[in-house]
Structure formats: C-alpha cells, structure tokens
Amino acid sequence: MLYRLPPCDLERWYSQYGFGARYNLSGSAAPALMTADLLHYAGPDAVAAYLELSLNYAPANGTLRLRTAIAQQYETLTPDQIQVTSGAVEALLLLFTVLLHPGDAMVVQFPIYPSIYGLAEARGAEVRRWPILPNGQIDLDHLHILLDQGKVRAIVLNHPHGPTGLLLAPSELMAIAQLAADYNATLVVDEVYRGIQFTDDVSPPAADLGAHIVSIGDVSKPYGLGGLRIGWLATADTQVLDRCAEVRDYTTLCSTAPGEFLAAIALEHRTGILARQLAVAQQNRRLFSVAMTDHEWLDWSLPNGGFTIFPRSRLRRSTAATCHELYERYNVLVLPGEVFAMPGYLRLGFGVEPDQFAAGLERLLAYAAHVNGELRHTY
Question: pTM of the full predicted structure?
C-alpha cells in the first residue's frame, strides 16, 4: 500500500529549469556518453550485434550477461543475487515496498536524494534523519540513539555521499553494518557514485559485508548513461530478492533490451570508462579549488567522492533566489539547498566537460562579484 507520494522537490526543480541553461553546473552524473562511444569500446562486431538485437521483453531479473557484469563488481555475490531495475529509483521503490510497513521506522542519512525519504513516508513509515555533521563527518553515537527508539526496519546511506561528497572509511562502514545487524535492520546502501573516489582508502561494496545489506547501483552517475535507465539491487538475502521480483511485476516488469545491452558493455569496460570520467571530475575539482580560493561567499571543502560539492552560501538572499537569478541572468544552472530541505546550501557538479565547467564557473564568479556587497560578515 502506498499513501500519497509527496512531490520530489529536486526533480520538480529540474522539470522547470533542467534543460534551459547553457552551463549546467548542478548535475550529479558524469558527462554523457554517446551510443557510438559504447559500441567503440565493445569492438568492431558490436554495431552489427546491436542492430540485430531483438526488441522483445528482457528477462525480468535482467539478462545473464548484464547480471554477470554487475556481479563482477562484488567479491561475494553471483549473478543470481542481482535484480536489474529501471534505474536506481525503481530499486528503492521495490525495496521500500518490501521492507517498510505503516508504523515502521527508517533511519536515513541526511541530506540525501529526496525520493528516498519520500518513498518511505508514502509507505507510512517514520523517517528519522541522521545528519552529517558540519565538519563532514558522521556521528555513530547519534545513530545509536535513533536506533534505540525502536521499530527501525532499514538504515539508508548514500556512499559515496551526494550531495556532500562524504566518503566513509572502511571501519566506519563496517561499524554501521554491525549496528544494522545488532538491531535486526536491513542496511540499504545507495552506491550509485561508486567508482568516483579521490582517495585510496576505499570501502568494499556494502553487499559484500553481510546478507542483511543491500547495495544499489546504476550506470547513470559514474558512467554518464542516465538515458539507459539501468540500475540494480544486489544482496545475498534471497527472500528480499524474491519479494522485490514479485513487486516488479506491478511496476516495469523488465528493463529495455537496448538499455541492458549497452549497460553490459559499459560494465564490461568499466575500468577505461571510469578512468575517463574520474579524470574529468579531478580536473574540475582542481579548477574549482583554484578559482574559489580568494572568494569568501561560499564555505566549502573538496569532496572525497562522487561528482558533487555542497558549499554553504554566505549571501543574504535565499539560495533558491540565487539559483533563479543565475539561471535567468547568467545562463547557469546550480541546484539550491532548498530541494534537499537544506536552505543556505548549493549543489554544484564536477561531472561536466572541463571547457563547459570553466565557462560556467566564470559566470558564477561574475555573479558573485555583482552581489559581493551582500557578503555576510558573521561567520
């Protein structure tokens, strides 16, 4: 049973502004790849194979080729422990339909993609927010407190985290996994940014840490393939997998055959593709760091993972007003913190071709210079 779904403020913002600005500095994904790019990775026979692809229904759990490519990212899972979905958002819908019932509670890392808690609330669950600290760290004692209040069926993380870029140490992720086990809760880890990390201290995929854990992934964020609408959930919990498969009979039934074909190619060649997309993010991170050094209108620190940064604005106007003016007068798209229920913050994305990022950043700084007189003097 679903109660009324609340509007997803982030997606409503994009529905209004998402395709109009010349310089999109707001996004959370890698630069988009072209179909020809993927077919080139796959070799000379790929074009013919793609053109001969049947457009019949795909298997409900995903083609074996795709599930094999997904399973290769995990140390302990097999293709049979993968459920392909229509993007990561369908994986969330399936999971919360299975895990949550009216009166249950879910602990969610905050801020986070709004659909995550919107879907939980629509199931009649109580959502308990576990905020990331102002210094970009986590508070495990606070998580204990939230779990001690009882009825927690699920803990939800985004790792690497969007929009802040927080990257948990392996010991931190394992501590959270142990807490979930102690409280008999399913740990759901949204890993859609996995592969985009700027440190060598990388945690294992969450689903490898226990059968009470579900990893969610997709090819949208790290690969720049959002148009394929291919995601998945991965877990050793066969009961959860079976129930999610049953729920999918009421949603999309299966993913698209062309999407699964192309996604399999991307995952089979993930090393080269991720290296390219990571290099783009690193270049834009460096440019942002240099450009913003002498500008005091944003409080920021470079993220350790993902494509986004979430600085706090010191301007007196609301961040929604700031983003609206950037769009209307400077042709630049930036996401306001209001869509994350975090007014006063801005989301910028490093997953932009560097020439576009540089041009957009120049306009962002021109805007800052224009309103420089509104800089707050209370830090």
Answer: 0.95
